[in-house]
């Protein structure tokens, strides 16, 4: 158990819909990361938050957005869903201080299926 | 820009050694990592190496770092069927802001 929790574990929805994925980081970790993993694209970094502020952006679509709340939990919002958005979405957390070992702890993932 | 590349698949026989390779582009990497993802689970850190080291050994795992060629490898001795998983290489860098970049992952198949 990494200490990172994600809900829900599975999500099935239809094209055009909007969903929210939730992540609680490990106690003490200030950075939260979101990744998308699909069979054809591998692991893709989406976005990182550090202590409530966006720190880095990866291959995140405009239809997707995220935020990190004052209690450090994070939500990833996916809207106007398409079939190709079906994937595993991972959240990870780390202490996040520059200059040190930035080991990331991954949650179990949310499997999103868009029908 | 920064990039981390790995081959997608590797197949070995049980009992043989596995060598998974990775190349990266950012010469200012500070830490390099190997993560393992078992089926249906999230990634988990296996081992890491600081950029001023050439080698790190941890039981069956040996990490080799060639900074000149920007090449990282993970050797698994006496590979077992339980080692079948996806292995991700990653680097932490301060270039353009502190961040960690992951490769796409190498899927290791271990044949009994």
Task: Report what the structure shows.
The complex is a heterodimer of chains A (115) and B (112). In chain A, 0% of the residues lie in helices and 52% in strands. Chain A is globular. Chain A contains no helices and 11 strands. Chain B has 112 residues and is mainly beta. In chain B, strands 2, 4, 5, 9, 10 and 11 form a 6-stranded mixed β-sheet that branches. In chain B, strands 1-3-8-7-6 form a 5-stranded antiparallel β-sheet, with no helix packed on it. In chain B, strand 4 and strand 5 form a beta hairpin. Chain B is globular and about 45 Å long. At the A-B interface, strand 5, strand 9 and strand 10 of A face strand 4, strand 5 and strand 10 of B.
For this structure, the quaternary state is: heterodimer
Strand content of chain A: over 45%
Total of DSSP H or I helical runs spanning 4+ residues of chain B: 0
Sum up the overall morphology of chain B in one term. Answer: globular
| Percentage of β-strand residues of chain B | over 45%
Q: Whole-Å distance between the termini of chain B?
A: 41 Å
Helicity range of the residues of chain B?
A: under 10%
Quick one: biggest sheet of chain B? Answer: 6 strands, mixed
| Tally of DSSP β-strands of chain A | 11
Give a brief rundown of this model.
The complex is a heterodimer of chains A (115) and B (112). Chain A is mostly beta strands and 115 residues long.
Descriptive keywords:
heterodimer, A: 115 residues, mainly beta, seven-stranded mixed beta sheet, four-stranded antiparallel beta sheet, 0% helix, B: 112 residues, six-stranded mixed beta sheet, five-stranded antiparallel beta sheet, 11 strands
Write the layout of secondary structure elements.
The complex is a heterodimer of chains A (115) and B (112).
Chain A: E1 5-7, E2 10-13, E3 19-24, E4 31-38, E5 42-50, E6 53-57, E7 64-68, E8 74-78, E9 87-94, E10 105-106, E11 110-114
Chain B: E1 4-6, E2 9-13, E3 18-24, E4 31-37, E5 43-50, E6 55-58, E7 61-66, E8 71-76, E9 85-93, E10 99-102, E11 106-111
Parallel strand pairs in B: 2-11
Antiparallel strand pairs in B: 1-3, 3-8, 4-5, 4-9, 6-7, 7-8, 9-10, 9-11
């Amino acid at each position: 158990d990494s200490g990172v929790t994600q809900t829900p574990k599975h999500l099935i929805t239809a094209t055009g819909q909007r969903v929210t994925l939730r992540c609680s980081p490990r106690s003490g970790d200030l950075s939260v990361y979101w990744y998308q993993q699909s069979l054809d694209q591998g692991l893709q970094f989406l976005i990182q938050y550090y202590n409530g502020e966006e720190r880095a952006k990866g291959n995140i679509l405009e239809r997707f957005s995220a935020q990190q709340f004052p209690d450090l939990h994070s939500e990833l919002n996916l809207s106007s869903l398409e079939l190709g958005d079906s994937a595993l979405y991972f959240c990870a957390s780390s202490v996040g201080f520059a200059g040190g070992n930035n080991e990331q702890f991954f949650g179990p993932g949310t499997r999103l299926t868009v029908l | 820009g920064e990039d981390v590349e790995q081959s997608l698949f590797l197949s070995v026989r049980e009992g043989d050694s596995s060598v998974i390779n990775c190349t990266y582009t950012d010469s200012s990497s500070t830490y390099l990592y190997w993560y393992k993802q078992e089926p249906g689970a999230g990634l988990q850190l296996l081992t890491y190496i600081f950029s001023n080291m050439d080698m790190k050994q941890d039981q069956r795992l040996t990490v080799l770092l060639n900074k000149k060629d920007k090449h990282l490898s993970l050797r698994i001795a006496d590979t077992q069927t339980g080692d079948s998983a996806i292995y991700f290489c990653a680097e932490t860098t301060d270039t353009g802001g502190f961040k960690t970049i992951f490769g796409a992952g190498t899927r290791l198949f271990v044949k009994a």
